[in-house]
Structure prediction request, 408 residues.
Amino acid sequence: MKKIKLKTIFGISFFFLLVSRILILTDNYALPIDPIILQILYILFLVMILVVNSNRKVNLKSFKSKDYIKVISILLIHTFLWGNVFVNQAMVDLTNSQFKSQIMFLVIIILTSYVVIKLDSIDVFIKASFYAISFVLIIQLILNFSELNLSNIKNIMNKDERYRANFGFGHYNTLGGACLCNIILWSLLNKFNHNKIVPFTFFIVSIIMLLCSASRSSITALIFYFVILGFEKISNNKMSSKKKTLVCIIKIFIFFILLIFSLNIDFEELLLESQRSLLFEKSIPEFLGSGRILEGLGYVSNTAYGTNLTPYTTYWLDNGYIYLLVSTGVLGFLLIFYVIILLIKNFYFTKNLFLKNNIYPILLVYLYTSIFEANLFNSGSINNYVYLVIFLYYIYKINYNKNIIINN
Prediction:
């Protein structure tokens, strides 16, 4: 009974924390309490939960949990080194600001994942995340209802003719990412709830607002996500060897169709119209000629680079991988790349079908969207407050229960 109450209390607390972070990151925060104080209160609340539930042991010293510890350690080390050691003295103040933001974010993520592990409450966490994002989406839809327009859906992929709405989210891709995350959470909740119906209204709202955002990265990521889920579902059904061979042939066929399709796309024009060609024309050359290839230009926010608050002319670094390379250099990039390898290792190279079929597709979507936004393990992304906790929970869980099922 006590554990059930703790789960409920934790779910409610994370709901309010995530709502507050969404409002902050979309410049809609208007609560009387300082957001930093709110984060500190949340952290203290999690510590209290851990103290109350101290009777349940979580073995982090075991060799089996090494990947969970590795991911956490590398993220903390990366933030500490580039926030305090490899500091570009020309951007000290900007680096301090980024360091404080990132370290607070990591403390929240790590403590949240640990509480989810201790309470075994991944279902509660996913539900709280889903309703938090849904709540903000609906409020913003109501407050900005005049922006709702689906009459030009056919031109979503056309830069000049598409209609875009952000419903108060500041940027279209921020809205698109939140909608994408919510749809993925809805899909997960349907697996957790079995025969219980997850409110379809929130799914529809997320789809509509995603289409209105005309965020090509999020829309293509959603298609990518459902295609992966569909193939995995077909592959895991009991089939004869001939049918499995047929499915394999279909996968290869679709891959080549997509390859042929991609060859007909003018990627140079696509990069130019999205201004991401500047990454290769300005950002990378600036980085290569800086003399700071190993340690990077400086661990400051993408906003600082994009609004010319740094001594470097990089423009916006709208690519998570290039942002890490430019800001933290080859050394920082390799550290984070190792984290990605650990995630792939745990979710793809596993015999656990739930992780391979449900969590690995989320990881792929996360890595895919990071090609278009500087959101890779970054405190400035709404989705990281959700995805990273899920990843950390299942990295730990798979090492202790190889036969993990949906509800654990």
Remarks:
- The two ends are 18 Å apart (CA to CA).
- The chain is about 70% helix and 0% strand.
- The first helix runs from residue 2 to 25.
- Residues 228 and 361 are 7 Å apart (CA to CA).
